[in-house]
Amino acid sequence: MKKKGPIIIIAIIGAIILVLGICGVGGYLVYKNFIADKVKEEIGDEMIEDALESATGGEAEVDSDDESVHIESDDMTMDIGSDEEWPDEIPGYVPEFKYGSIMGVTHSTTDEEDYWLISIEEVDSNAFSKYKSDIENNGWEVSYTQSSDSTDYLSASKGDNIIVFAVDTEDDTGSVTVTIRE
After folding, report:
1. Whether 65 and 87 share a structural domain
2. Are residues 89 and 179 in the same domain?
3. How far apart are CA 141 and CA 77, in angstroms?
4. pTM reported for the whole predicted model
């Protein structure tokens, strides 16, 4: 019988990813596809700020350009961009993913934690086993793995810190989610 703890953690992480994805990617796509000049950019940023402020009850600042979106509120900051490199801000004890190409990075910061979502394409066919080994060799405890016909997934922890790694083997994409609580 499997423990329910990892499933709850996975569900919480999934919900966080979904909320961050909706807020971040939605704002970025609106800007990228519908806002053509500086005036419209500022209006768009203000509309996103108003939506965030209504949703959270706090103040929010949004600044966007062609390549990124920066969101800052009372409780957090978030940067969404098309960075194609492993973030330097991720602590060295988190193994760098080297088995595919980074498409983009989302970084969110609160008082309690830093969170990164690294989106990956062109993932090597044996990336799952290689990165799992990298994680374990860096002292992380793999607490959950799951494989299906087209998806491999793992969750690992080191103290209160978490790595979630998923690969879609049909389209050779994946993601590494890193949560650092210090």
Report:
1. no
2. yes
3. 29
4. 0.62
Element (H, E) at 160: none
Q: DSSP 3-state assignment of 89?
A: coil
Are residues 59 and 142 located together in one domain of the fold? no
Residue with tokens 């602590």: 91
- Nearest C-alpha neighbor of 126 from the set 172, 157, 72, 85: 172
Looking at residue 141, the DSSP 8-state letter turns out to be E
Cα separation, 128 vs 152, in Å, equals 7
Domain count of the chain? 2
Q: Render pLDDT for 42-72 as a digit per residue (tens, 0 to 9).
A: 544 555 555 554 555 656 565 666 565 655 6
Domain membership of residue 76 (yes or no) is: no
Q: Which residue among 69, 92, 110 closes a domain?
A: 69
CB atoms inside a 10 Å sphere around CB 19: 12
Which tokens belong to 113? Answer: 């934690």
Query: Do 63 and 139 sit in the same domain of this protein?
Result: no
Q: Which residue has the tokens 């080994």?
A: 133
pLDDT at residue number 78: 57
State the residue range of the domain holding 145. 82-182
Give yes or no for a contact between 114 and 131, defined as CB atoms under 8 angstroms apart: no
Q: What token pair was written down for 39?
A: 């005036």
In a domain, 138, yes or no: yes
- Give the separation between CA 51 and CA 60, rounded to whole angstroms: 9
